[in-house]
Protein backbone atom coordinates (compact mmCIF):
# COMPACT_ATOMS: atom_id res chain seq x y z
CA UNK A 1 0.00 0.00 0.00
CA UNK A 2 2.91 2.36 0.64
CA UNK A 3 3.20 3.62 -2.92
CA UNK A 4 -0.34 3.20 -4.15
CA UNK A 5 -0.25 6.95 -3.93
CA UNK A 6 -1.18 7.26 -7.59
CA UNK A 7 -4.27 5.03 -7.58
CA UNK A 8 -6.49 7.82 -6.33
CA UNK A 9 -4.65 11.06 -6.86
CA UNK A 10 -5.07 13.93 -4.46
CA UNK A 11 -5.66 16.34 -7.33
CA UNK A 12 -8.94 14.62 -8.08
CA UNK A 13 -10.22 16.10 -4.86
CA UNK A 14 -12.03 19.33 -5.45
CA UNK A 15 -10.05 21.31 -2.90
CA UNK A 16 -6.73 20.46 -4.48
CA UNK A 17 -8.02 20.82 -7.99
CA UNK A 18 -9.19 24.31 -7.11
CA UNK A 19 -5.79 25.08 -5.62
CA UNK A 20 -4.09 23.94 -8.81
CA UNK A 21 -6.40 25.92 -11.06
CA UNK A 22 -6.02 29.05 -9.00
CA UNK A 23 -2.25 28.64 -8.85
CA UNK A 24 0.07 29.97 -11.46
CA UNK A 25 -2.02 30.74 -14.50
CA UNK A 26 0.79 29.86 -16.89
CA UNK A 27 3.02 30.08 -13.77
CA UNK A 28 2.61 33.84 -13.75
CA UNK A 29 -0.07 34.56 -11.17
CA UNK A 30 0.80 33.14 -7.74
CA UNK A 31 -1.55 33.55 -4.82
CA UNK A 32 -0.96 36.44 -2.49
CA UNK A 33 2.08 35.97 -0.23
CA UNK A 34 1.33 34.78 3.26
CA UNK A 35 3.21 36.01 6.31
CA UNK A 36 3.87 34.62 9.75
CA UNK A 37 4.61 36.44 12.94
CA UNK A 38 8.21 37.63 12.83
CA UNK A 39 8.63 36.14 9.35
CA UNK A 40 9.15 37.58 5.91
CA UNK A 41 6.63 37.10 3.13
CA UNK A 42 7.62 34.75 0.33
CA UNK A 43 7.04 35.74 -3.26
CA UNK A 44 5.79 32.22 -4.06
CA UNK A 45 2.60 32.27 -2.04
CA UNK A 46 3.86 30.54 1.10
CA UNK A 47 5.98 31.55 4.04
CA UNK A 48 9.61 30.82 4.77
CA UNK A 49 10.06 28.77 7.93
CA UNK A 50 12.77 27.58 10.25
CA UNK A 51 14.88 30.69 10.86
CA UNK A 52 13.09 31.97 13.94
CA UNK A 53 14.10 30.67 17.37
CA UNK A 54 11.94 27.83 18.70
CA UNK A 55 9.25 28.84 21.13
CA UNK A 56 10.17 28.70 24.81
CA UNK A 57 8.48 26.21 27.11
CA UNK A 58 6.84 22.90 26.32
CA UNK A 59 5.90 22.39 22.66
CA UNK A 60 3.81 19.62 21.10
CA UNK A 61 4.31 18.85 17.41
CA UNK A 62 1.86 16.77 15.40
CA UNK A 63 3.32 14.61 12.62
CA UNK A 64 1.03 12.99 10.07
CA UNK A 65 2.07 10.15 7.81
CA UNK A 66 0.32 7.69 5.56
CA UNK A 67 1.67 4.38 6.83
CA UNK A 68 1.04 0.69 7.11
CA UNK A 69 2.37 -1.77 9.68
CA UNK A 70 5.93 -1.72 8.30
CA UNK A 71 6.08 2.03 7.65
CA UNK A 72 5.28 3.43 11.08
CA UNK A 73 8.71 5.05 11.42
CA UNK A 74 7.52 7.86 9.12
CA UNK A 75 5.83 9.35 12.19
CA UNK A 76 7.46 7.36 14.97
CA UNK A 77 10.92 8.41 13.75
CA UNK A 78 10.31 12.10 14.49
CA UNK A 79 8.86 11.11 17.87
CA UNK A 80 12.05 9.26 18.73
CA UNK A 81 14.23 12.01 17.26
CA UNK A 82 12.53 14.60 19.47
CA UNK A 83 13.99 12.86 22.51
CA UNK A 84 17.44 13.97 21.33
CA UNK A 85 16.47 17.66 21.46
CA UNK A 86 17.96 18.21 24.88
CA UNK A 87 17.87 22.00 24.51
CA UNK A 88 14.15 22.04 23.70
CA UNK A 89 11.09 20.70 25.52
CA UNK A 90 9.42 19.12 22.48
CA UNK A 91 6.95 16.26 22.37
CA UNK A 92 5.93 14.73 19.05
CA UNK A 93 2.46 13.30 18.61
CA UNK A 94 2.86 10.73 15.78
CA UNK A 95 -0.19 9.93 13.65
CA UNK A 96 0.19 6.91 11.34
CA UNK A 97 -2.82 6.87 9.03
CA UNK A 98 -3.78 3.83 6.96
CA UNK A 99 -7.00 5.17 5.46
CA UNK A 100 -5.66 5.33 1.90
CA UNK A 101 -3.82 8.11 0.09
CA UNK A 102 -6.85 9.93 -1.31
CA UNK A 103 -8.60 10.14 2.05
CA UNK A 104 -5.37 11.00 3.86
CA UNK A 105 -4.63 13.92 1.54
CA UNK A 106 -8.20 15.14 1.74
CA UNK A 107 -7.93 15.13 5.55
CA UNK A 108 -4.83 17.29 5.34
CA UNK A 109 -6.38 19.78 2.92
CA UNK A 110 -9.52 20.12 5.04
CA UNK A 111 -7.45 20.49 8.21
CA UNK A 112 -5.21 23.11 6.59
CA UNK A 113 -8.22 25.09 5.40
CA UNK A 114 -9.56 25.01 8.96
CA UNK A 115 -6.21 26.02 10.52
CA UNK A 116 -5.93 22.64 12.26
CA UNK A 117 -3.32 20.79 10.19
CA UNK A 118 -0.28 19.10 11.78
CA UNK A 119 2.97 21.03 11.99
CA UNK A 120 4.66 18.30 9.91
CA UNK A 121 3.01 16.39 7.05
CA UNK A 122 4.46 13.51 5.06
CA UNK A 123 3.36 13.01 1.47
CA UNK A 124 4.56 12.48 -2.08
CA UNK A 125 6.84 15.10 -3.56
CA UNK A 126 4.27 15.84 -6.29
CA UNK A 127 2.15 17.60 -3.63
CA UNK A 128 4.83 20.26 -3.19
CA UNK A 129 3.71 22.64 -5.96
CA UNK A 130 0.00 22.39 -5.17
CA UNK A 131 0.34 22.74 -1.42
CA UNK A 132 3.02 25.43 -1.66
CA UNK A 133 0.93 27.45 -4.08
CA UNK A 134 -2.13 27.08 -1.84
CA UNK A 135 -0.13 28.42 1.13
CA UNK A 136 -0.40 25.21 3.15
CA UNK A 137 3.36 24.68 3.56
CA UNK A 138 6.34 26.95 4.13
CA UNK A 139 9.52 27.22 2.15
CA UNK A 140 12.17 24.96 3.67
CA UNK A 141 15.39 26.82 2.78
CA UNK A 142 15.81 28.58 6.12
CA UNK A 143 15.22 25.33 7.98
CA UNK A 144 17.73 23.51 5.79
CA UNK A 145 20.38 26.16 6.38
CA UNK A 146 19.77 26.21 10.14
CA UNK A 147 20.77 22.60 10.85
CA UNK A 148 23.90 20.78 9.75
CA UNK A 149 22.11 17.41 9.60
CA UNK A 150 20.50 18.39 6.30
CA UNK A 151 23.96 18.63 4.67
CA UNK A 152 24.05 14.81 4.72
CA UNK A 153 21.01 14.44 2.43
CA UNK A 154 21.92 12.86 -0.92
CA UNK A 155 22.36 15.87 -3.17
CA UNK A 156 20.20 14.66 -6.06
CA UNK A 157 17.21 14.12 -3.77
CA UNK A 158 16.80 17.84 -3.14
CA UNK A 159 15.49 18.12 -6.70
CA UNK A 160 12.40 16.17 -5.66
CA UNK A 161 11.37 18.92 -3.21
CA UNK A 162 12.34 21.87 -5.38
CA UNK A 163 9.68 23.99 -7.06
CA UNK A 164 10.23 27.30 -8.84
CA UNK A 165 13.83 27.25 -7.73
CA UNK A 166 13.03 26.96 -4.02
CA UNK A 167 13.12 24.04 -1.57
CA UNK A 168 9.84 23.08 0.11
CA UNK A 169 10.64 20.03 2.21
CA UNK A 170 13.14 17.31 2.99
CA UNK A 171 13.03 13.74 1.64
CA UNK A 172 11.82 11.14 4.14
CA UNK A 173 12.59 8.11 2.01
CA UNK A 174 13.05 7.11 -1.58
CA UNK A 175 12.94 3.91 -3.58
CA UNK A 176 13.49 2.19 -6.86
CA UNK A 177 11.01 0.35 -9.05
CA UNK A 178 13.00 -2.58 -10.40
CA UNK A 179 12.16 -5.16 -12.97
CA UNK A 180 11.97 -8.27 -10.82
CA UNK A 181 12.70 -11.63 -12.41
CA UNK A 182 12.36 -15.27 -11.42
CA UNK A 183 15.87 -16.73 -11.38
CA UNK A 184 14.58 -20.29 -11.00
CA UNK A 185 12.40 -20.06 -14.09
CA UNK A 186 15.16 -18.45 -16.15
CA UNK A 187 17.31 -21.46 -15.24
CA UNK A 188 14.48 -23.78 -16.30
CA UNK A 189 14.39 -21.92 -19.60
CA UNK A 190 18.04 -22.80 -20.12
CA UNK A 191 19.84 -19.70 -18.92
CA UNK A 192 23.25 -20.35 -17.39
CA UNK A 193 24.06 -19.03 -13.93
CA UNK A 194 26.38 -16.49 -15.54
CA UNK A 195 23.57 -15.23 -17.79
CA UNK A 196 21.22 -14.88 -14.82
CA UNK A 197 23.80 -13.15 -12.64
CA UNK A 198 24.82 -10.73 -15.40
CA UNK A 199 21.28 -9.58 -16.27
CA UNK A 200 21.39 -6.38 -14.14
CA UNK A 201 24.66 -5.31 -15.76
CA UNK A 202 23.40 -6.15 -19.25
CA UNK A 203 20.43 -3.86 -18.60
CA UNK A 204 22.76 -1.09 -17.43
CA UNK A 205 24.78 -1.56 -20.62
CA UNK A 206 21.67 -1.47 -22.81
CA UNK A 207 22.30 -5.01 -24.08
CA UNK A 208 19.01 -6.37 -22.70
CA UNK A 209 16.04 -4.23 -23.72
CA UNK A 210 12.28 -4.35 -23.44
CA UNK A 211 12.24 -6.25 -26.73
CA UNK A 212 14.54 -8.86 -25.22
CA UNK A 213 12.34 -9.12 -22.15
CA UNK A 214 9.27 -9.73 -24.32
CA UNK A 215 11.07 -12.33 -26.41
CA UNK A 216 12.35 -14.15 -23.30
CA UNK A 217 8.88 -14.15 -21.75
CA UNK A 218 7.38 -15.54 -24.98
CA UNK A 219 9.96 -18.32 -24.98
CA UNK A 220 9.05 -19.18 -21.38
CA UNK A 221 5.37 -19.41 -22.25
CA UNK A 222 6.06 -21.50 -25.35
CA UNK A 223 8.32 -23.84 -23.37
CA UNK A 224 5.75 -24.28 -20.61
CA UNK A 225 8.04 -22.71 -18.01
CA UNK A 226 5.22 -20.31 -17.15
CA UNK A 227 1.54 -20.36 -17.94
CA UNK A 228 0.21 -18.18 -20.79
CA UNK A 229 -0.22 -14.63 -19.51
CA UNK A 230 2.41 -15.06 -16.79
CA UNK A 231 5.49 -13.98 -18.72
CA UNK A 232 5.28 -10.35 -17.62
CA UNK A 233 3.11 -8.64 -15.01
CA UNK A 234 3.23 -4.87 -14.85
CA UNK A 235 1.49 -2.91 -12.11
CA UNK A 236 -2.12 -3.94 -11.53
CA UNK A 237 -3.61 -0.44 -11.50
CA UNK A 238 -2.93 3.23 -11.86
CA UNK A 239 0.51 4.31 -10.82
CA UNK A 240 3.54 6.30 -11.82
CA UNK A 241 5.37 3.04 -12.60
CA UNK A 242 3.99 3.08 -16.15
CA UNK A 243 5.98 6.21 -16.97
CA UNK A 244 9.09 4.04 -16.91
CA UNK A 245 8.14 2.67 -20.33
CA UNK A 246 7.56 6.16 -21.71
CA UNK A 247 10.96 7.14 -20.34
CA UNK A 248 12.47 3.93 -21.75
CA UNK A 249 11.63 5.10 -25.26
CA UNK A 250 13.13 8.55 -24.70
CA UNK A 251 9.99 10.38 -23.58
CA UNK A 252 10.37 13.67 -21.74
CA UNK A 253 8.07 14.80 -18.95
CA UNK A 254 9.18 18.33 -18.16
CA UNK A 255 11.13 21.26 -19.57
CA UNK A 256 12.81 23.01 -16.68
CA UNK A 257 13.79 26.13 -18.63
CA UNK A 258 10.19 26.97 -19.52
CA UNK A 259 8.58 25.27 -16.50
CA UNK A 260 6.26 23.38 -18.85
CA UNK A 261 5.18 19.78 -19.08
CA UNK A 262 6.29 17.88 -22.20
CA UNK A 263 4.77 15.09 -24.26
CA UNK A 264 7.02 13.34 -26.78
CA UNK A 265 4.81 12.02 -29.57
CA UNK A 266 7.07 9.19 -30.75
CA UNK A 267 7.85 7.90 -27.27
CA UNK A 268 4.18 8.07 -26.28
CA UNK A 269 3.15 5.90 -29.22
CA UNK A 270 5.96 3.42 -28.50
CA UNK A 271 4.94 3.26 -24.84
CA UNK A 272 1.34 2.56 -25.79
CA UNK A 273 2.55 0.04 -28.34
CA UNK A 274 4.51 -1.78 -25.64
CA UNK A 275 1.42 -1.99 -23.43
CA UNK A 276 -0.62 -3.55 -26.24
CA UNK A 277 2.19 -5.79 -27.38
CA UNK A 278 2.62 -7.59 -24.03
CA UNK A 279 -1.04 -8.58 -24.22
CA UNK A 280 -0.97 -9.58 -27.88
CA UNK A 281 2.19 -11.63 -27.33
CA UNK A 282 0.42 -13.60 -24.60
CA UNK A 283 2.75 -12.68 -21.73
CA UNK A 284 0.28 -10.40 -19.92
CA UNK A 285 -3.41 -11.26 -19.48
CA UNK A 286 -6.17 -9.48 -21.38
CA UNK A 287 -7.87 -6.69 -19.41
CA UNK A 288 -5.13 -6.92 -16.83
CA UNK A 289 -5.38 -3.38 -15.48
CA UNK A 290 -7.82 -3.48 -12.61
CA UNK A 291 -6.63 -6.85 -11.29
CA UNK A 292 -7.09 -7.07 -7.52
CA UNK A 293 -3.84 -6.06 -5.85
CA UNK A 294 -3.89 -9.06 -3.49
CA UNK A 295 -4.01 -11.40 -6.49
CA UNK A 296 -1.07 -9.55 -8.03
CA UNK A 297 1.03 -9.71 -4.84
CA UNK A 298 0.18 -13.36 -4.23
CA UNK A 299 1.11 -14.34 -7.78
CA UNK A 300 4.48 -12.61 -8.03
CA UNK A 301 5.62 -13.47 -4.49
CA UNK A 302 4.70 -17.13 -5.05
CA UNK A 303 6.97 -17.29 -8.08
CA UNK A 304 4.32 -17.81 -10.75
CA UNK A 305 5.46 -14.98 -13.05
CA UNK A 306 8.74 -14.71 -14.97
CA UNK A 307 9.17 -10.91 -15.05
CA UNK A 308 7.24 -8.25 -13.16
CA UNK A 309 7.44 -4.56 -12.38
CA UNK A 310 7.26 -3.50 -8.74
CA UNK A 311 8.85 -1.43 -6.02
CA UNK A 312 11.51 -2.41 -3.48
CA UNK A 313 9.15 -1.39 -0.66
CA UNK A 314 6.90 -4.29 -1.71
CA UNK A 315 9.65 -6.70 -0.65
CA UNK A 316 8.87 -6.07 3.02
CA UNK A 317 5.15 -6.51 2.34
CA UNK A 318 5.70 -9.81 0.51
CA UNK A 319 7.98 -11.12 3.26
CA UNK A 320 5.64 -10.18 6.09
CA UNK A 321 2.22 -10.73 4.56
CA UNK A 322 2.51 -13.19 1.68
CA UNK A 323 5.39 -15.61 2.18
CA UNK A 324 6.18 -15.43 5.90
CA UNK A 325 5.25 -19.11 6.27
CA UNK A 326 7.73 -20.01 3.51
CA UNK A 327 10.70 -18.21 5.01
CA UNK A 328 10.01 -14.56 4.30
CA UNK A 329 12.94 -12.66 2.83
CA UNK A 330 15.16 -15.76 2.67
CA UNK A 331 12.54 -17.44 0.48
CA UNK A 332 12.38 -14.39 -1.80
CA UNK A 333 16.15 -14.12 -2.16
CA UNK A 334 16.23 -17.75 -3.29
CA UNK A 335 14.37 -17.07 -6.52
CA UNK A 336 13.85 -13.32 -7.03
CA UNK A 337 16.34 -11.12 -8.84
CA UNK A 338 16.08 -7.37 -9.45
CA UNK A 339 17.44 -4.97 -12.02
CA UNK A 340 16.68 -1.60 -13.56
CA UNK A 341 13.73 -1.37 -15.91
CA UNK A 342 15.21 -2.16 -19.35
CA UNK A 343 15.45 0.56 -21.96
CA UNK A 344 13.40 0.36 -25.11
CA UNK A 345 16.43 1.54 -27.11
CA UNK A 346 19.39 -0.75 -27.74
CA UNK A 347 22.56 0.60 -26.19
CA UNK A 348 20.77 2.89 -23.74
CA UNK A 349 20.94 2.10 -20.01
CA UNK A 350 17.88 1.06 -18.08
CA UNK A 351 16.32 3.39 -15.55
CA UNK A 352 13.91 3.53 -12.66
CA UNK A 353 11.31 5.95 -11.40
CA UNK A 354 11.98 7.11 -7.87
CA UNK A 355 9.17 8.65 -5.87
CA UNK A 356 10.42 10.16 -2.61
CA UNK A 357 8.03 10.77 0.21
CA UNK A 358 8.89 14.05 1.87
CA UNK A 359 8.40 15.90 5.13
CA UNK A 360 6.87 19.37 4.75
CA UNK A 361 6.41 22.11 7.35
CA UNK A 362 2.86 23.38 7.53
CA UNK A 363 2.34 27.14 7.44
CA UNK A 364 1.26 28.66 10.80
CA UNK A 365 -2.01 29.83 9.23
CA UNK A 366 -2.78 26.23 8.26
CA UNK A 367 -1.65 24.58 11.50
CA UNK A 368 -2.86 27.17 13.98
CA UNK A 369 0.50 27.13 15.79
CA UNK A 370 3.78 29.03 15.74
CA UNK A 371 5.94 25.93 16.23
CA UNK A 372 7.60 25.93 12.81
CA UNK A 373 11.14 26.32 14.17
CA UNK A 374 10.65 23.52 16.70
CA UNK A 375 9.22 21.31 13.96
CA UNK A 376 12.27 22.09 11.85
CA UNK A 377 14.57 21.05 14.70
CA UNK A 378 12.67 17.76 14.99
CA UNK A 379 13.12 17.05 11.29
CA UNK A 380 16.84 17.78 11.54
CA UNK A 381 17.21 15.08 14.21
CA UNK A 382 15.04 12.77 12.10
CA UNK A 383 17.23 13.17 9.00
CA UNK A 384 20.09 11.01 10.27
CA UNK A 385 21.47 7.61 9.38
CA UNK A 386 20.32 6.20 12.71
CA UNK A 387 16.68 7.28 12.54
CA UNK A 388 16.18 6.91 8.79
CA UNK A 389 17.66 3.42 8.74
CA UNK A 390 15.01 2.22 11.20
CA UNK A 391 12.44 3.01 8.51
CA UNK A 392 14.59 1.89 5.57
CA UNK A 393 15.23 -1.61 6.90
CA UNK A 394 11.77 -2.38 8.24
CA UNK A 395 9.93 -1.08 5.16
CA UNK A 396 12.64 -1.83 2.53
CA UNK A 397 13.00 1.74 1.29
CA UNK A 398 16.24 3.34 0.18
CA UNK A 399 17.81 5.80 2.58
CA UNK A 400 18.10 9.53 2.02
CA UNK A 401 21.41 10.49 3.65
CA UNK A 402 24.91 9.88 2.36
CA UNK A 403 26.26 8.40 5.59
CA UNK A 404 23.84 5.47 5.40
CA UNK A 405 25.99 3.80 2.74
CA UNK A 406 28.62 3.18 5.43
CA UNK A 407 26.27 2.89 8.40
CA UNK A 408 26.62 -0.75 9.43
CA UNK A 409 22.94 -1.69 9.92
CA UNK A 410 22.06 -0.21 6.51
CA UNK A 411 25.15 -1.52 4.69
CA UNK A 412 24.49 -5.03 6.01
CA UNK A 413 20.96 -5.11 4.61
CA UNK A 414 21.23 -7.12 1.41
CA UNK A 415 18.29 -5.68 -0.53
CA UNK A 416 19.09 -2.06 0.28
CA UNK A 417 22.78 -2.36 -0.43
CA UNK A 418 22.20 -4.23 -3.71
CA UNK A 419 19.66 -1.72 -5.06
CA UNK A 420 21.26 1.54 -3.90
CA UNK A 421 23.04 1.90 -7.26
CA UNK A 422 19.67 2.34 -8.95
CA UNK A 423 19.53 5.93 -7.68
CA UNK A 424 22.27 6.66 -10.24
CA UNK A 425 19.75 5.84 -13.00
CA UNK A 426 16.57 7.30 -11.57
CA UNK A 427 14.21 10.05 -12.63
CA UNK A 428 11.34 11.84 -10.89
CA UNK A 429 7.90 12.92 -11.84
CA UNK A 430 7.85 16.69 -12.31
CA UNK A 431 6.77 19.11 -9.60
CA UNK A 432 4.17 21.07 -11.53
CA UNK A 433 0.69 22.23 -10.54
CA UNK A 434 -0.83 20.66 -13.65
CA UNK A 435 0.95 17.33 -13.48
CA UNK A 436 -2.16 15.62 -12.08
CA UNK A 437 -4.41 16.11 -15.11
CA UNK A 438 -1.40 15.54 -17.39
CA UNK A 439 -0.80 12.06 -15.97
CA UNK A 440 -4.51 11.23 -15.78
CA UNK A 441 -4.81 11.75 -19.54
CA UNK A 442 -1.63 9.81 -20.33
CA UNK A 443 -2.78 6.87 -18.21
CA UNK A 444 -6.38 6.82 -19.45
CA UNK A 445 -5.32 6.50 -23.09
CA UNK A 446 -2.66 3.95 -22.16
CA UNK A 447 -5.40 1.73 -20.76
CA UNK A 448 -7.40 2.08 -23.99
CA UNK A 449 -4.36 1.08 -26.01
CA UNK A 450 -3.54 -1.91 -23.82
CA UNK A 451 -7.12 -3.16 -23.87
CA UNK A 452 -7.30 -2.81 -27.65
CA UNK A 453 -10.01 -0.14 -27.63
CA UNK A 454 -7.71 2.11 -29.68
CA UNK A 455 -4.59 1.41 -31.69
CA UNK A 456 -1.42 2.74 -30.02
CA UNK A 457 -1.14 5.40 -32.74
CA UNK A 458 -4.74 6.56 -32.31
CA UNK A 459 -4.47 6.49 -28.53
CA UNK A 460 -1.34 8.63 -28.64
CA UNK A 461 -2.88 11.11 -31.07
CA UNK A 462 -6.07 11.47 -29.02
CA UNK A 463 -4.10 11.76 -25.78
CA UNK A 464 -2.05 14.61 -27.22
CA UNK A 465 -5.20 16.33 -28.44
CA UNK A 466 -6.76 16.18 -25.00
CA UNK A 467 -3.53 17.30 -23.34
CA UNK A 468 -3.42 20.33 -25.62
CA UNK A 469 -7.05 21.14 -24.92
CA UNK A 470 -6.78 20.86 -21.13
CA UNK A 471 -3.25 22.07 -20.46
CA UNK A 472 -2.91 24.69 -23.22
CA UNK A 473 0.14 26.87 -22.45
CA UNK A 474 1.34 24.49 -19.72
CA UNK A 475 2.33 21.96 -22.41
CA UNK A 476 5.05 21.45 -25.01
CA UNK A 477 4.45 18.84 -27.72
CA UNK A 478 7.55 17.49 -29.36
CA UNK A 479 8.11 14.74 -31.90
Structure, described:
With 479 residues, the chain is α/β, with parallel strands linked by helices. The chain has 2 domains: 4-174 and 356-427, 3-Layer(aba) Sandwich (D-Maltodextrin-Binding Protein, domain 2), CATH 3.40.190; 179-353 and 435-478, Periplasmic binding protein-like II (D-Maltodextrin-Binding Protein, domain 2, 3-Layer(aba) Sandwich). It is built from 21 helices and 16 strands. The protein has helices at residues 14-22, 73-82, 101-113, 128-133, 141-146, 183-188, 193-197, 199-204, 210-222, 243-248, 265-280, 293-302, 313-321, 329-335, 364-367, 372-382, 385-395, 408-411, 414-419, 435-450, 456-471; strands at 59-66, 90-97, 120-124, 162-163, 166-167, 170-173, 179-182, 232-233, 254-255, 260-264, 307-309, 336-339, 352-353, 357-361, 426-427, 475-478. The strands form 5 sheets. It has a 5-stranded mixed beta sheet with strand order 2-1-3-14-6, with helices on both faces. A 4-stranded mixed beta sheet has the order 8-11-7-12. It has a 3-stranded mixed beta sheet with strand order 9-10-16. Strand 9 (254-255) and strand 10 form a beta hairpin. Helix 2 (73-82) packs across helix 16 (372-382), helix 11 runs parallel beside helix 20 (435-450) and helix 20 runs antiparallel to helix 21. The chain is globular.
Amino acid sequence: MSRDIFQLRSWSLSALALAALLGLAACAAPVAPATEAGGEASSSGATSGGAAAPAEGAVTIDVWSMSNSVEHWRSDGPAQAAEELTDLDVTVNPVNDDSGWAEYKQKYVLAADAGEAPEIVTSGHEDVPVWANAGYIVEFTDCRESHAEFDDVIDSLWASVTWQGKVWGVPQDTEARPMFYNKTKLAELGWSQEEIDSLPQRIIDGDFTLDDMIETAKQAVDAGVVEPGYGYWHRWGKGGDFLQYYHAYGGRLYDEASDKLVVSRGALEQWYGFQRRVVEEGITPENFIGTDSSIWHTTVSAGDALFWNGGIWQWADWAANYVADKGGQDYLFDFVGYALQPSGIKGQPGSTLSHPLVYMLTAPEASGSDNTAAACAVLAKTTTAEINTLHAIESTHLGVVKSQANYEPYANDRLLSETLYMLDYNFYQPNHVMYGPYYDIMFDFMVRAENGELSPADAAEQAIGQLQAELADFLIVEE
